[in-house]
User: What shape does this take?
Amino acid sequence: MMNRLWLLFAQIVTILLAALFIIATLKPSWLSNGQIHSIVENVTLKEGAYDGNTISPGSYHDAVKKSMPAVVNIFTSKTTAKPKTRKGSNGKSSDPLFKFFFGDQPPEEEPTSSLGSGVLVSPEGIILTNHHVISDADDIDIALSDGRKVKAKIIGSDPETDIAVLKIDAKQLPSPISFGKIESVHVGDVVLAIGNPFGVGQTVTSGIVSAMGRDHVGINTFENFIQTDAAINPGNSGGALVDTRGNLIGINTAIYSNNGGSMGIGFAIPVNLAKQVMEAILTNGSVARGWIGVEPQNLSKELAESLGLPSSTEGVVLSGVLEGGPAARGGAKPGDVLIAVNGNTTKDVRQLLNQIAQIGPGNEANLKILRKDKELELKIQTGKRPKPKTLN
Assistant: This one.
């Protein structure tokens, strides 16, 4: 009997000690009459005096507030042909993964989607974006800053500058963005990139203008980029590059990257070129550029010496001249070295393309050439530049 009582007593004491340990660990206030003793008796904290309506010094909030509502998200979808799948002896797909996702009778075409950004530039619903954002799209949806989604139609696009113009029909549109002046943009200026990177939603990044007039990048036929280190990531294409006043100075287009992410080198189409292309598309539905029908080649020092010219000669060799084309009708011949157009020096092929394109079709171009050590001037009536070939 005594052993049983002693065992019961030991069990009760053990349970009470365990309960006391748990209370002391989790609820010490129950054992101290509600009073908590701090390690440090008195702590004084100092908080800054802030007015919620006051903007922090150096903030770009006003510029973002002015420009961000005009930046839209663009969702495109298109239907792409699906390659034929391998078939087993029973006539069904031999790929279990394909079968799992699509079933035994896959459609010949499947929908794909992508996203980018755009900039609302007028209260009539005109949107600027990149050509590559909407290229070959069957359906385009625009997500406005107020959360609404509307359908957009393509007014026109120019793959050679990577500019496209869209239009939406909606009431009470956000305030359109204000155009800046490219003359006011300088290397070292702070700029803000606004877009929808990776589909996470509207995002603002900041940086500086790293360089102006970047060409020979190999992105577009006609290049004159603003280079910036403001972070530009997938989904930012077609978005706004704005100055610290909130004015549009460029359309974000591409990045230099080895891994697909921002590495501090981004390119934007300058506002003056974007506006020029937009106005041409709104007026004519496309951009008409001058063309003379030649196959130009940069004049290297070695090539100049082989042609009997001083190695310091600058120009473009006409390695080919289209028979019956504008240049041929004006007297140009293969082997001619073109050194100036309308009195402006021509240093390389890209500069020649820009010079002739800006003259426009149907206008006269005065070409200064070197032919067998003789300087000649030719008058050529430019034609219309053919549309670039697209890959199927």
In short: The chain has three domains: 63-82+104-168, 182-284, 290-384.
